[in-house]
C-alpha cells in the first residue's frame, strides 16, 4: 500500500500541480504534436523515480510513464466526442489510477483484488449508494405534489438542487458514522444561512415551507441510513 500511495502522490503532483493551464490548452490544440505533452510525461517519469527512490524499480517508472502517455493521447483524441468534458477527464484519471494500482500490486494482484472484494463493507456501500441518487429520486416523488405550487422566478443551475441534496446527505451520513451528531446541526444552520437571501427576496411562505420540508426529508433519509448502518448490523 505504501508503494501505491507514493505513486499516487507523484501522479497528483504531476497532473495537478506541475501542469500549467497553458500546457493543457496547447495539448488540446496540438495533441500528439504538442511539446508540452512529452514534457508533462517526462515530469511524471522524474516524479515516479523520486518517490520510488530505488533505481531497481525503474521498470515501474517506465511502464507508468508510457501508460500515462498513451492514456493522455487517448483523452486528447477522444475529447471532441464528448459534449460533457467532465466525462473524459474522470475516465482519464480513473485509467491513470488503475495503472498505478496494477504497477503497485503486480506481484500479488489476484490475491490483493480478492482480499479487497472479500473485505469490502457492502453494508456501508449500500448506505452510501442509498443517500445519493436513490434518495434523490425518493425526494422527487415525495415533493412532486408540492413542487407545482411553487412559483420560481429565479434561474438556477441545472440539477443543482439534486446534487446539493446528495452532497448534504453524504455529509450527514459521515457525521453519523464518526459519531459527530452536533455537526449535523451546524450543517443545517449553514444551509439556512445560504438560503436566507432567497427566502427573503421571494417573500413566499409556500417556498419557505417547501424548502423546509425538503431539507427535513433529505436529512431524515440520511439519518435513517446512518442509524440503520450503525445500530442494526
TrEMBL record:
Short name of one Pfam family: DUF3307
Stored InterPro entries: Phage_phiKZ_Orf197
Signal peptide segment: none
UniProt KW keywords: Membrane, Transmembrane, Transmembrane helix
TM region(s), chain numbering: 36-53, 89-107, 119-139, 170-190, 210-229
Name the UniProt record assigns to this protein: DUF3307 domain-containing protein
Source species: Maribacter chungangensis
Amino acid at each position: 500500500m505504501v508503494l501505491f500511495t507514493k505513486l499516487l502522490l507523484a501522479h497528483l503532483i504531476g497532473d495537478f500541480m506541475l501542469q500549467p493551464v497553458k500546457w493543457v490548452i496547447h495539448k488540446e490544440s496540438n495533441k500528439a504534436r504538442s511539446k508540452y505533452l512529452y514534457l508533462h510525461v517526462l515530469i511524471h517519469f522524474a516524479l515516479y523515480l523520486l518517490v520510488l527512490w530505488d533505481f531497481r524499480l525503474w521498470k515501474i517508472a517506465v511502464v507508468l510513464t508510457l501508460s500515462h502517455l498513451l492514456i493522455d493521447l487517448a483523452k486528447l483524441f477522444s475529447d471532441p466526442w464528448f459534449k460533457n468534458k467532465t466525462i473524459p477527464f474522470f475516465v482519464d484519471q480513473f485509467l491513470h489510477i488503475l495503472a498505478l494500482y496494477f504497477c503497485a500490486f503486480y506481484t500479488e494482484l489476484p490475491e490483493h483484488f480478492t482480499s479487497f472484494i472479500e473485505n469490502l463493507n457492502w453494508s456501508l456501500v449500500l448506505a452510501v449508494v442509498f443517500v445519493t441518487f436513490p434518495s434523490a429520486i425518493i425526494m422527487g416523488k415525495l415533493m412532486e405534489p408540492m413542487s407545482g405550487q411553487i412559483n420560481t422566478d429565479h434561474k438556477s443551475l441545472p440539477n443543482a438542487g439534486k446534487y446539493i441534496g446528495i452532497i448534504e446527505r453524504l455529509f450527514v451520513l459521515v457525521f453519523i458514522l464518526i459519531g459527530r451528531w452536533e455537526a449535523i446541526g451546524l450543517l443545517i444552520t449553514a444551509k439556512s444561512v445560504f438560503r436566507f437571501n432567497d427566502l427573503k427576496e421571494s417573500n413566499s411562505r409556500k417556498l419557505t415551507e417547501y424548502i423546509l420540508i425538503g431539507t427535513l426529508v433529505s436529512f431524515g433519509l440520511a439519518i435513517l441510513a446512518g442509524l440503520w448502518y450503525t445500530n442494526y448490523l
